[in-house]
Inverse folding.
């Protein structure tokens, strides 16, 4: 195998190993960043829901307290206000979802589905658990969810969800007596869950990965061509020329011209040494001839 072939084999091997390492690292980093970005957005959405809940409790419910004695208004319920706000958001962002999933809700729309019930049970089984982040498949693709427990820390909640006899008559008239009662103080009754689609950030991460890897391949191809050109012009061509002259001299042809590359590099030093050896050989052959 020629030097050029050996050199290129080593160069390509090193590149492939580096490409695999760079590909694995960049893929992990890009997809990790995409996941972190989705979690950050989910956290912002959760914070927005909490802000809406607080606003409803502080400013909306007091204004409608007198009317609540005649008719129960869902608009005074913090969970209802947060859900309606995100319902408007879903019109332009169908993959986004917010729900206050409850095991025993007053409004059947808030009843936890199977996977949501599993999340609630995790919170109930581990009092120190304050947040759960996970992924699940949806009809529109993979989705990341952020869940936090709903705990009855305010005893005012028990006025509606404690016992049936204490619940507002207008609420019972609207929702009935079958659900939403029996809650206890400090009990975890549900979970706030925000779901954000992963398809868009993952697609962007994949595009960035492909662009990065294509750039690496293009850079390597340019370096490969440049290194081969330099190797050929600076080393292989001078060495081949000296080998050709040496071959002619070995056949007794002493009238071949000297080889001189000029410069001060190692090949130039080798050419000067080669010329001195050729001159010495020529003188020795003349002495033998005399």
């Amino acid at each position: 195998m020629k030097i050029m072939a050996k050199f290129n084999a080593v160069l390509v091997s090193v590149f492939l190993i580096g490409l695999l390492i760079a590909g694995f690292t960049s893929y992990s980093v890009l997809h990790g960043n995409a996941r972190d970005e989705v979690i950050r957005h989910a956290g912002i959405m959760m914070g927005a829901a909490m802000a809406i809940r607080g606003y409803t409790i502080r400013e909306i419910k007091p204004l409608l307290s007198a009317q609540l004695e005649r008719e129960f208004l869902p608009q005074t319920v913090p969970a209802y206000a947060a859900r309606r706000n995100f319902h408007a958001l879903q019109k332009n962002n169908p993959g986004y979802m917010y729900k206050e999933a409850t095991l025993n809700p007053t409004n059947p729309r808030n009843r936890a589905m199977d996977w949501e019930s599993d999340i609630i049970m995790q919170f109930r089984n581990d009092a120190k658990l304050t947040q759960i982040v996970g992924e699940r498949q949806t009809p529109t693709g993979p989705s990341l969810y952020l869940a936090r427990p709903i705990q009855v820390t305010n005893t005012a909640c028990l006025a509606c969800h404690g016992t049936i006899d204490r619940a507002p008559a207008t609420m019972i008239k609207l929702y009935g007596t079958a659900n939403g009662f029996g809650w206890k103080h400090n009990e975890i009754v549900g979970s706030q869950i925000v779901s954000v689609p992963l398809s868009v950030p993952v697609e962007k991460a994949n595009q960035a990965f492909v662009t990065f890897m294509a750039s690496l391949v293009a850079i390597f191809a340019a370096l490969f061509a440049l290194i081969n050109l330099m190797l050929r012009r600076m080393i292989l061509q001078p060495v081949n020329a000296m080998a050709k002259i040496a071959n002619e001299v070995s056949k007794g042809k002493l009238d071949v011209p000297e080889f001189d590359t000029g410069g001060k590099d190692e090949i130039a030093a080798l050419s000067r040494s080669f010329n001195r050896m050729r001159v010495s050989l020529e003188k020795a052959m003349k002495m033998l001839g005399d």
Q: What stands out?
A: The CA atoms of residues 281 and 287 lie 10 Å apart. The longest helix spans residues 3-60.
